[in-house]
Amino acid sequence: MGLLRFCWMWLLTAVVLQAADHPNIVLILADDFGYGDATCYNSRGRVATPHIDRLARQGLRFTDAHSPATVCTPTRYGLLTGQMPFRIPRGGTVFSGAGGPSLIASGKPTVASLLKQQGYATWAVGKWHLGLTFRDAAGQAIHDGRPEAIQRIDFTRPVEGGPLEHGFDQFFGTACCPTTDWLYAFIDGDRIPVPPTMPLDKSGLPKHPYANDCRGGFIATDFPMQSVDQVFLERSRQLIEQHLDEQPEQPFFLYHATQAVHLPSFASSRFQGQSGAGPHGDFLLELDDLVGQLTELLQRRGVLDRTLFIFTSDNGPEVDAVVNMRADHDHDGAAPWRGVKRDNWEGGHRVPLLVRWPGVVAAGGVTDQLVSLTDVMATVADIAGVPLPEGSGEDSVSLLPVLRGEAAGPVRPWLVTQAFRGRQTLAIRRGRWKYLAHEGSGGNNYQQGRLQQYSLPERLSGATDQLYDLETDPGETTNLANERREIADELRELLQQVQGSGH
Q: In which domain, by residue range, is 464 found?
């Protein structure tokens, strides 16, 4: 009995040590969830987000975190590879329908492939949106975002270029934006078990100011347009439950990319009318509940405190969501920043970032460290105790010293973001100064339509760029490009060096 007891204690100790060195990792990437959409970032928010707020209380809240791009596809590339999307030929692409091929080159290391090599089970659930290759009956590749291309797909053939080829053991999700981009069907692994053969009938779908982003296309019989996030949540729950039943000693990485709160705002029935802030408020409520459901599952299974839990968003909030929520419900998803999704002003790319990791990350912390979502790659490598593979994580900096509270100064000397037009609309931030190497927002048109009411005179005589002092002017209201030309030129040269260096 003594030897048996010794072996059992040794096994328990080994499991605990492995958990400390290799925690489970859950990364929730929300869609179009703005800096001002969570009440832990915006006390004037009109939608309660108790579960997201609880993450902030139990972990570390970043106040100066940025998506690498102001739209979804390039941000997802930067997050998973640690490389800024402007560095690759199609780095400004946003896919729809059967668009592709994959932005991630074959063999390019990703967060998932790195963790898989370290013994992790790796799963992707939800929106992929990094490009896929579908084929027709003759085997010819289809890289076409138009709805008519969907009718050419041979659904007996595997889908190529997806998560299974980029380090994930399992995938369940959609090709692009789940309820927006023409192809309404679930991919399971590398197949679409139930093909989208019927034209989408929108007559029974909600009609409101937040429902206008639902495009016509083709839909599968098992695709519930108003409860996609519940399907994603159930699959993530199943993966976690099964894994903990069968292989509890193996760490896992779950990358859960939500539909919420990308328009159209189709909240599930349980949340409709519950927020007091209209259809989009209900959708925000559903996203918050999803975070709570996953954290509570991990708590019930006894692994929450052995899990590194990350919550963030792919970019700022959508135009219709911001304009209508401001007018109808006095809720500002971009608060307190200027700009929205697609824009290179702060509202387009400054995003919430919350990290919970008991025993490493002190509860209730707040940091103003300048960070990018590209930093996930180097951070994960640091946590796993392995160097980044050669030719990977080119724009990634480890945040582990920040998480541990050991960073003596800034971990990043500067940060680059790209707006909707890709490498033609880059900006660089260093300390208090932010330089935009272009005129205007870099994305949305503020000279007419709904956004004209928010237009500011950022254009200066003779200036084709913008310079802002975020310390004294966080709202980016006063362009100092002419007045402080020496700083603008210095940052322009630094941006050119960063572009030319490749890393």
A: 425-503
